[in-house]
Amino acid sequence: MAEQHPFDVGIALEHSDDGTLRGRTDPGWNNMVGPFGGITAATLLHAIESQPDAHGAPLTLTVNFLAPIADGEFQVSARALRTNRTNQHWYAELSQDGAPKTTATAIFGIRRETWSDTELIAPDVPVPEDLPEPGTPRGVAVWIGNYDMRVIEGPYPGPDDGPSPSSLTKLWVRDRRGRTHDYAALTALCDIFYPRSYVRRAQVGPAGTISMTIYFHADSAELQSVGDDFLLGCARGNRFSNGYFDQSAELWSRSGALLATTHQLVYFKA
Amino acid sequence: MAEQHPFDVGIALEHSDDGTLRGRTDPGWNNMVGPFGGITAATLLHAIESQPDAHGAPLTLTVNFLAPIADGEFQVSARALRTNRTNQHWYAELSQDGAPKTTATAIFGIRRETWSDTELIAPDVPVPEDLPEPGTPRGVAVWIGNYDMRVIEGPYPGPDDGPSPSSLTKLWVRDRRGRTHDYAALTALCDIFYPRSYVRRAQVGPAGTISMTIYFHADSAELQSVGDDFLLGCARGNRFSNGYFDQSAELWSRSGALLATTHQLVYFKA
């Protein structure tokens, strides 16, 4: 039997008799506290995708992080709230011992050809092959080891870095072991960016996403054509105040297709 | 008895015996089909705010529009899913005859002073007093008459306008009858922008928000200091394809405070 890719292990769910789904945290996806938010978000999207009545492909997903997920088993429920002719609205919840830990709302839909244009301009950056391969991850967060991240601008602050007037990070990223980018993988990648406050202040400290929204622009064929190639991620903060900041980010294909735009609200201490 | 401001009539809710809230669509807030999405979003935020166990002030709100709201009565339920020390997670639903029409998730929280900075740069624009007052609204959408909107750039397309390479709209907006900007009013204003596809193509056609997310940056004191003054709104689309586009927008105070950032996914036909 072929071994499952670590990403698929991370988002794996089993159907149980009461109609809910059961999953289990995977140590390979650990963050500082609980699992990487991106794998949790991907798990919730995957829960919806794998429902027999799911209709169309993801258009948007909002994930709210209510409380840390403890190591071990969790339950996921996913419920279609409304099915229209061209779209479908979902509510999903990840819980442990009956307490909700993460919630998601999603809209799935049918895409049909219309007038189209990407107004946002793709940044001009060096190709990933011209950037150094990342070293062994520093071990702060285990999940980072699952990705090959090549930072162009706005790195995770090192001991010699000083404050920066800009929180902008540009990086190339792909799965280190070559998993293709489907909607679940893209969901996880939308949460790949370390807190923008770290980049601004060159200091790490308590910080965590409390809400993340994704707008999926790529249709299935476009995603498929990207395969497991590097994606270009760009992220910046808009306003930092009173313990919270918002981040806006984009994921681009190498050929310049805007695959997803994504936004977060992050709490931080500073 | 003092007459209620039209905005407060629009978001009014009555507590009923079964713990749900009852509201009623107001013809003064009509859009082409059903009420203006902004007033619906504000009603859901207001439903949460008015719960006796609400804790802190709004940090983020995501509203999904499932189906058109019919003229008449509706029910709203709001449920705290989790209360943490500094934040609280909510789920709210607006329904008619038992069918959900609009859902919302929100996070409320306590703000505490931290390092702060607005990284996004406020655009340099003329003051609202130097721009023409809007004429009588064209009557396409009744709700527009509730606002004094003064467009700086990217107007609603007129018969003589041609396609534009940019979907950017910049406008000043305030309540026409002088209502102060609290979180509910700010929520409605986040949905003030006509579809970005109209600006690009200089054509109106079927289009509607299917999901809207708001990050509230202003604390209560900052909002209070704005009073009922004009706010500067800027909105642009990132990618238009396959019947959907995303919009990113900001609301600024006249003094340059970034009060809210907000994002939408919009369906359109073209």
TrEMBL record, chains A, B:
Residues 27-109 form the Acyl-CoA thioesterase-like N-terminal HotDog domain. It comes from the Bacteria. Residues 128-267 form the Acyl-CoA thioesterase-like C-terminal domain. Signal peptide: none annotated. Coiled coil: none annotated. This is Thioesterase family protein.
